[in-house]
Amino acid sequence: MNNFKVITKIEELPKDIIENVEIGIINLRTGDLKVINEISFRCHSTTACCRLHTIPLTENDVLRIEKHGYELFQFLKETSPVLILSKIKKGHYTKAYILKKKPFSNECVFLENNKCKIHEFKPIACKLYPFSIRRDEGDEDKVTVIVHPESVCTSVKKCSIKQYAEKFNEDINEVMGSKQILEFIYDLIKENEVQTID
Ligand code: SF4
């Protein structure tokens, strides 16, 4: 048994990541992965992210969800995109649509019995969570993978896989370290031709 508690309010998010942490750099042309900081993570499916965060959607996300039979009014807060201030790139904005929440509970409309109803085609932000990617100006081939304090979930820590497994009584094979995180995100980028959400 691990000791991760379910977060019910944004103020309860853990404070061990207090500033942006660069996990590493992916070279999209060569596939080289460079780890910068040791981060470990295992999703515990608390679904706190589906209840506590505003989820941005790219245009590709909207089209993909629509293709699976959902109407815009069912999953978009507004049919127009909004500008969202970047959390990882100072002074930058991203244009995005906002995923609709259920009234009163404030959880995502696709969350049902603590499971994502659209898991196979969920938004790229949900696939990436709790990580973000930043395309640095001047070098189109490279993206930096980051974890930032406002997006952080209880299951991501600044330590090695071994330390994580020992501290939280986890199977070491179930924990992702920085290298596996970079590999996972590189695969996502290749599969989805990701539009960056900073
Ligand atoms: S789409 Fe799925 S993963 Fe994303 S917030 Fe909604 S329920 Fe959670």
Structure described in brief:
This protein is an alpha+beta fold and 198 residues long. Helices cover 23% and strands 20% of the residues.
Can you characterise this structure?
The chain has 198 residues and is an alpha+beta fold. The chain has one domain (10-192). Helix content is 23%, strand content 20%. The chain has 6 helices and 11 strands. It has helices spanning 48-52, 59-67, 72-75, 124-128, 161-168, 178-192, and strands at residues 21-27, 33-35, 40-41, 56-57, 82-85, 93-98, 111-112, 115-116, 132-135, 142-147, 156-157. The strands form 4 sheets. It has a 4-stranded antiparallel beta sheet with strand order 2-1-10-9, with helices on one face. It has a 3-stranded antiparallel beta sheet with strand order 4-6-5. The chain has a two-stranded antiparallel sheet with strand order 3-11. A hairpin with a 6-residue loop joins strand 9 (132-135) and strand 10 (142-147). The model has no long low-confidence stretch (mean pLDDT 86). The structure holds iron/sulfur cluster (SF4). Residues 50, 55, 108, 110-111, 116, 118, 122-123, 126 line the site of iron/sulfur cluster. Iron/sulfur cluster is lined by residues 50, 55, 108, 110-111, 116, 118, 122-123, 126.
Helical fraction equals 10-25%
Order of helices and strands: EEEHEHHEEEEHEEEHH
* Overall form: globular
- Beta strand count: 11
Average pLDDT score? 86
State the end-to-end CA separation: 34 Å
Low-confidence stretches: none
Largest sheet features: 4 strands, antiparallel
User: Which structural category do the helix and sheet elements fall into?
Assistant: alpha+beta
Order of adjacent strands in the largest pleated sheet: 2-1-10-9
Q: What is the helix tally?
A: 6
If you compute it from the alpha carbons, what radius of gyration comes out, rounded to the nearest whole angstrom?
17 Å
Number of structural units classed as domains? 1
Percentage of β-strand residues: 15-25%
Ligands, deduplicated:
iron/sulfur cluster
